[in-house]
C-alpha cells in the first residue's frame, strides 16, 4: 500500500489538472457616447451590440442628452467607475475636461478605449478613430472639383464641438487643404455645439454678411441639419457635410448636399468592444483606422456606398 | 524479470504489474473504440441536423417565394383585365394584397419606358430614366416569362423613403385601356427584414449562419454583411464556388467548418449553411472530459485491485517459502501445511510428504548407524577371546600335567570370572569395578603363566568404582604391557593400575608398566591410530581407542607416553558417567 499511495496521489493531481478552467466572467463594458441620440452614435451602438454576441461582453450604454454637455459625460464616466465596470468605451466630448476622470478610471484598473475622439496629451489604453485629417483633406479636394479653376472658393466651415480632437483635426486639415488652392479663402470657421438652430443662425448670418461664400462645410449631422434650410435661398452655395441621416440623404438626392462623408460608425462601435475585450484579456488590439467614404448623388446607390450610407435605415 | 539490483522481481510485483497493465490496456482500448464510435456518431448527427436546418430554411424560403409567385400570377391576370376592370379597381385589389401582407412593400407595373401603369404607392415616382436603369428592370426586360429576384438593396422608386428590399421583377403582357396588348414590367418589393428574419431565426450551432450567393458566386445576402463591409469578417467564397452543391468540410481562418450548399428554387440563388465543427462537437468535448476522469478513476481502482489480488495470490507462496527456509535450516518439526489456491495446497502437501520422508530416512540412518557401531564393537570384543583362551588353556594343561591342582583351580576360577564379566549378560556397559575385576583375573592368569615374572597393583579413587565404562578396555592395554614390555625384562616387572577423576567430568584409567618401553618412532606410529601397524603390535591398543571414540566421541580415547628402558604409561580417558548396577556375583 505504501507504493500505491504515491500513484493514487499522482492520479488525483492529474484529475485536478484535467478539470476545466473556470470560465472568465463576461466582461462588463460601459459605452459612453457624446450624446444619447444621433444617427452616428446609433450606428456606433449597433456595432457595439453586434460585437456583444461575438465576445459575450455585457454592454451598458450611457451618454448625456446634449453632445456639448461634457459635465454630464464626466458624470457618466464617474458612474461607470462607481458601478465597477471592467472597461469603458468613451467618445470624450472635451479633450481636456475628461482627462481627470479617465485617469481615475485607469487608476482603478478599468480599461479605457477612446472611440472616435481622443484626449489631448494623454494616452488612453487604446484609441479607435477614422483618419479625420485625411477626411478633411478629401472634403477640400472634392470641393475643388465643384468649381472651375478660375473660380474663387469662399468657404464657411462649421464644426460641432470646438474642444474635441475630431473637430480640431477636421477643421485644421480642411483649412490647410483649402489654403493650398490659390483662389480659396476661409470666410469663417466656427462651431455649432451640435445644435441645429445655432448652425442655422451661423450660416444665415454668414451668408447674409458675406454673399461671396459659395461653399459650406458642415462637419456633423445636426450641424448639417441646421445649414440646409439656411442655404435654401442661396442656390449657388455648394454644401458638403458629414453624416448619413435620412434628411442628409434626401438633401443629397435633391442635390442640396453635394457630397456626404460617411464614417463607418458601426465599425467604430464593433471594434471598440473587441479592443476592450482584448485589453481585458491582456492582448494587444489591432491598430486599423475606421473606414469612411465620400458619397455623391451619383454613387449613393452603388453597392459599396449603399451599404455604408443606408446602414442605419436597414 | 529482474530488478535494478539484478534481483528477480517478486511474484507479487509481477502479478500486480501484469494485471494492472492488461486491465489498463483493456480500458484504454475500449475507451478509444467508444470514443471513435461516439465521435463518428456525433459528427454524423451534427452533419445531418445541420443539413436538415439548412434544408428547412430553404423550404421556408421556397414556400415564401412560391407565395410571391402566386401573387405575381394574380397580378399578371389582373393586368390583362383592364377591359373589365378599371385601373382604380385593379389597384384596389392589389392594395388589398399589400395591406394584408406586411412583408410586401409595394406592387407596381411599369411599361417598358418606365412609366407607371399600376401602383400600390401613393408617393411620386423617380423619373423614368432612373427607373429603367435599375437592375431589376434591365434584367427582366425582353425576357417574357422569366422572373428575377434581386439581392437586398435600397429601394429607389421614390425620393421619400429608402427601405431595404428584395425585388421580384417579371416582364408580363398588359392590356392597355385601348385594348391593345403590350409589354410591361411587374415589380413586387419585399421587406428585407421579412426574408432576413426567415433566415436569421435558424442557428447552426452557436455561431453558424446561412447566407445566399447568386449564380456568379456573389453574396446576395449575408447576416454579417456589415462586418464584411467593414472588413471585420471574411467569407470563404472560394471553396463554395469549387463545390457548387452538397456537403463538405473545409478549414477557413483556422476553424474547421461544415458547409452545406443547396439550390434555392425560384430564385437563381444558392443557399450556403456554415456550421463550426468545434461548436457542433462541443458535446463530444464534455464527453471526452468525463471519459478521461472515468478512465483515470478506473486506472486508480485497477492499480489498487491488482495489488490486492497479487498480494492475495502470492501470500500462500510466501508462507510456503518461509516454511521451506525453516526446513532448510534443519527444522523438521512441523510439516508445512499452507492454505491457499488448489496448486499451492497441492505443492504444500507434496512438500509435507517430502519432509516426512526425509525425517523417516534420517531416523533410519541413525538406527542403522547405531546398529553398525554395535556390530563393530561386538566384532572387536570377539577378537580378544580365542587367542587368550588358547594360551590360558595351554597353561592349565601344563599345570595339570605338573600336578599343580591348586594352580589349575586358581587359573580356571580366574578364567571363569574373566569370561563371566566378558559376557556380562550381553551388556556393553559395566562398572569400573567390574572392569578392574576383569583385569585383575586376567593378571592373575598371566602371573601364573609367566611364573611371577611381574607383580601388579590396582588403585581406585573413592567413588569411581561404580562409574560406568564400556567393557574390556583395560585388558588389551595390560596385555600389551605384558607382551611388549614386561616379557623382555630380566628383572621383576610391575604393572600399576590406577583410576582417578580428571576435571571436567572425565575419568582416567591409568596403566603404568616398567617394561622395555618403546622407541620414539614406534610410539609415533602407535599414536597414529589411523595407520597400519606391523606385527599386530598395537592392535589391541588401537582397538580400545576406536571403541572409546566410537562410543563417546573424539574428546575421549587413549594417551600414551613411553621411554626406552623406563616403561610405558597408558591413560584411558572416558567420561564420568552415572554408575550402573554391578553384575551379580562379581565383587571388587
Characterise this structure:
The complex is a heterodimer of chains A (314) and B (588). By secondary structure, chain A is α/β, with parallel strands linked by helices. Chain A is built from eleven helices and eleven strands. Chain A has two domains: 28-130 and 265-283, Rossmann fold (3-Layer(aba) Sandwich); 132-263, 3-Layer(aba) Sandwich (Rossmann fold). In chain A, strand 3 (87-90), helix 4 (99-107) and strand 4 form a beta-alpha-beta unit. Chain A is elongated, with a radius of gyration of 24 Å. In chain A, 51% of the residues are buried. Mean pLDDT of chain A is 88; it is low at 17-24. With 588 residues, chain B is of the alpha+beta class. Chain B has a domain at 367-575: Heat Shock Protein 90 (2-Layer Sandwich), CATH 3.30.565.10. Chain B is 50% helix and 21% strand. Chain B has helices at 11-79, 87-100, 128-132, 135-140, 192-200, 225-229, 237-243, 277-280, 282-328, 342-402, 405-423, 432-449, 475-484, 520-527, 539-552, and strands at 104-111, 116-119, 147-149, 153-154, 164-175, 181-191, 209-214, 219-221, 246-252, 255-264, 269-276, 429-431, 454-460, 468-470, 493-502, 506-513, 557-563, 567-575. In chain B, the strands form four sheets. In chain B, strands 1, 2, 3, 4, 5 and 6 form a six-stranded antiparallel β-sheet that branches. A five-stranded antiparallel β-sheet of chain B has the order 8-7-11-10-9, sandwiched between helices. In chain B, a hairpin with a 3-residue loop joins strand 17 (557-563) and strand 18. In chain B, helix 9 packs parallel to helix 10, helix 11 (405-423) runs antiparallel to helix 12 (432-449) and helix 13 (475-484) runs antiparallel to helix 15. Chain B starts with 10 loop residues before the first helix and ends in a 13-residue tail after the last strand. Residues 583-588 of chain B have low confidence and may be disordered. The A-B interface holds A 1, 3-4, 7-8, 11, 14-15, 18, 20, 47, 50, 53-54, 246, 249-250, 253-254, 264, 266-267, 270-271, 291, 301, 303-304, 306-308, 310-311, 313-314 and B 153-154, 156, 159-160, 162-164, 192, 207, 225-227, 229-232, 289, 292-293, 296-297, 299-300, 303-304, 307.
Amino acid at each position: 500500500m505504501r507504493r500505491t499511495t504515491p500513484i493514487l496521489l499522482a492520479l488525483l493531481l492529474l484529475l485536478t489538472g484535467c478539470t476545466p478552467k473556470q470560465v472568465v466572467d463576461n466582461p462588463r463594458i460601459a459605452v459612453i457616447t457624446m450624446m444619447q441620440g444621433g444617427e452616428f452614435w446609433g450606428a456606433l451602438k449597433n456595432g457595439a451590440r453586434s460585437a456583444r454576441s461575438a465576445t459575450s461582453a455585457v454592454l451598458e450604454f450611457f451618454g448625456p442628452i446634449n453632445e456639448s454637455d461634457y459635465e454630464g459625460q464626466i458624470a457618466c464616466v464617474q458612474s461607470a467607475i462607481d458601478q465597477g465596470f471592467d472597461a469603458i468605451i468613451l467618445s470624450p466630448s472635451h479633450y481636456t475636461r475628461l482627462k481627470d476622470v479617465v485617469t481615475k478610471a485607469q487608476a482603478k484598473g478599468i480599461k479605457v478605449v477612446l472611440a472616435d475622439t481622443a484626449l489631448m496629451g494623454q494616452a488612453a489604453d487604446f484609441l479607435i478613430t477614422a483618419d479625420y485629417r485625411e477626411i478633411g483633406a478629401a472634403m477640400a479636394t472634392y470641393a475643388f472639383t465643384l468649381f472651375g479653376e478660375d473660380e474663387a472658393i469662399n468657404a464657411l466651415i462649421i464644426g460641432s464641438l470646438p474642444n474635441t480632437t475630431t473637430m480640431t483635426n477636421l477643421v485644421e486639415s480642411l483649412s490647410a487643404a483649402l489654403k493650398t488652392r490659390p483662389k480659396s479663402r476661409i470666410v469663417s470657421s466656427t462651431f455649432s455645439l451640435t445644435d441645429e438652430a445655432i448652425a442655422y443662425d451661423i450660416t444665415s448670418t454668414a451668408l447674409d454678411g458675406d454673399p461671396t461664400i459659395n461653399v459650406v462645410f458642415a462637419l456633423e449631422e445636426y450641424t448639417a441639419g441646421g445649414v440646409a434650410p439656411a442655404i435654401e435661398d442661396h442656390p449657388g452655395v455648394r454644401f458638403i457635410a458629414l453624416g448619413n441621416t435620412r434628411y442628409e440623404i434626401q438633401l443629397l438626392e435633391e442635390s442640396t448636399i453635394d457630397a456626404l462623408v460617411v464614417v463607418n460608425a458601426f465599425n467604430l462601435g464593433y471594434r471598440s468592444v473587441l479592443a476592450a475585450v482584448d485589453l481585458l484579456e491582456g492582448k494587444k488590439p489591432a491598430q486599423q483606422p475606421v473606414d469612411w467614404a465620400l458619397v455623391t448623388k451619383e454613387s449613393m446607390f452603388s453597392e459599396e456606398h449603399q451599404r455604408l450610407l443606408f446602414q442605419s435605415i436597414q | 524479470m529482474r530488478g535494478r539490483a539484478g534481483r528477480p522481481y517478486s511474484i507479487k510485483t509481477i502479478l500486480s504489474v501484469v494485471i494492472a497493465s492488461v486491465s489498463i490496456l483493456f480500458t484504454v482500448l475500449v475507451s478509444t473504440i467508444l470514443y471513435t464510435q461516439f465521435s463518428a456518431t456525433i459528427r454524423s448527427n451534427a452533419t445531418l441536423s445541420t443539413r436538415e436546418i439548412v434544408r428547412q430554411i430553404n423550404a421556408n424560403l421556397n414556400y415564401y417565394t412560391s407565395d410571391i409567385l402566386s401573387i405575381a400570377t394574380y397580378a399578371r391576370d389582373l393586368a390583362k383585365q383592364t377591359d373589365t376592370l378599371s385601373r382604380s379597381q385593379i389597384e384596389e385589389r392589389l392594395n388589398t394584397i399589400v395591406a394584408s401582407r406586411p412583408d410586401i412593400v409595394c406592387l407596381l407595373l411599369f411599361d417598358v419606358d418606365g412609366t407607371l401603369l399600376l401602383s400600390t404607392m401613393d408617393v411620386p415616382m423617380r423619373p423614368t430614366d432612373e427607373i429603367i436603369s435599375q437592375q431589376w428592370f434591365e434584367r427582366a426586360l425582353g425576357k417574357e416569362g422569366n422572373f428575377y429576384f434581386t439581392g437586398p438593396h435600397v429601394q429607389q422608386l421614390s425620393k421619400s423613403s429608402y427601405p431595404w428590399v428584395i425585388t421580384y421583377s417579371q416582364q408580363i403582357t398588359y392590356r392597355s385601356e385601348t385594348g391593345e396588348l403590350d409589354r410591361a414590367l411587374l415589380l413586387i418589393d419585399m421587406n428585407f427584414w421579412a426574408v432576413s428574419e426567415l433566415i436569421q431565426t435558424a442557428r447552426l450551432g452557436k455561431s453558424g449562419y446561412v447566407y445566399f450567393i447568386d449564380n456568379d458566386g456573389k453574396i446576395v445576402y449575408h447576416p454579417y454583411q456589415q462586418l464584411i463591409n467593414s472588413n471585420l469578417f471574411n467569407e470563404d467564397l472560394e471553396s463554395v464556388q469549387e463545390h457548387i452543391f452538397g456537403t463538405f468540410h473545409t478549414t477557413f481562418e483556422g476553424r474547421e467548418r461544415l458547409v452545406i450548399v443547396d439550390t434555392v428554387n425560384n430564385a437563381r440563388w444558392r443557399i450556403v449553411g456554415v456550421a463550426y465543427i468545434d461548436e457542433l462537437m462541443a458535446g463530444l468535448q464534455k464527453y471526452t472530459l468525463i471519459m478521461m476522469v472515468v478512465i483515470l478513476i478506473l486506472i486508480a481502482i485497477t492499480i489498487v485491485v491488482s495489488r490486492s489480488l497479487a498480494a492475495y495470490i502470492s501470500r500462500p507462496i510466501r508462507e510456503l517459502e518461509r516454511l521451506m527456509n525453516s526446513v532448510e535450516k534443519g527444522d523438521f518439526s512441523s510439516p508445512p501445511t499452507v492454505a491457499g489456491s488448489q496448486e499451492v495446497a497441492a505443492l504444500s502437501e507434496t512438500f509435507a510428504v517430502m519432509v516426512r520422508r526425509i525425517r523417516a530416512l534420517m531416523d533410519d540412518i541413525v538406527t542403522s548407524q547405531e546398529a553398525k557401531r554395535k556390530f563393530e564393537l561386538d566384532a572387536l570384543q570377539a577378537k580378544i577371546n580365542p587367542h587368550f583362551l588358547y594360551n590360558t588353556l595351554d597353561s592349565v594343561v601344563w599345570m595339570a600335567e605338573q600336578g599343580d591342582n591348586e594352580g589349575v583351580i586358581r587359573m580356571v576360577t580366574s578364567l571363569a570370572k574373566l569370561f563371566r564379566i566378558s559376557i556380562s549378560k550381553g551388556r556393553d556397559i559395566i562398572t569400573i569395578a567390574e572392569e578392574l575385576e576383569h583385569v585383575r583375573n586376567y593378571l592373575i592368569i598371566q602371573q601364573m603363566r609367566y611364573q611371577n615374572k611381574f607383580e601388579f597393583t590396582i588403585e581406585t579413587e573413592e567413588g569411581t568404582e561404580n562409574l560406568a565404562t564400556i567393557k574390556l578396555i583395560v585388558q588389551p592395554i595390560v596385555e600389551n604391557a605384558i607382551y611388549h614390555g614386561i616379557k623382555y625384562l630380566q628383572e621383576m616387572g610391575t604393572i600399576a593400575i590406577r583410576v582417578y577423576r580428571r576435571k571436567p567430568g572425565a575419568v582416567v584409567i591409568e596403566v603404568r608398566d616398567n617394561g622395555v618401553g618403546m622407541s620414539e618412532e614406534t610410539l609415533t606410529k602407535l599414536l597414529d591410530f589411523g595407520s597400519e601397524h606391523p606385527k599386530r603390535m598395537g592392535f589391541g591398543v588401537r582397538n580400545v581407542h576406536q571403541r572409546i571414540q566410537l562410543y563417546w566421541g573424539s574428546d575421549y580415547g587413549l594417551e600414551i607416553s613411553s621411554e626406552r628402558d623406563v616403561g610405558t604409561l597408558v591413560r584411558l580417558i572416558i567420561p564420568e558417567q552415572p554408575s550402573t548396577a554391578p553384575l551379580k556375583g562379581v565383587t571388587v
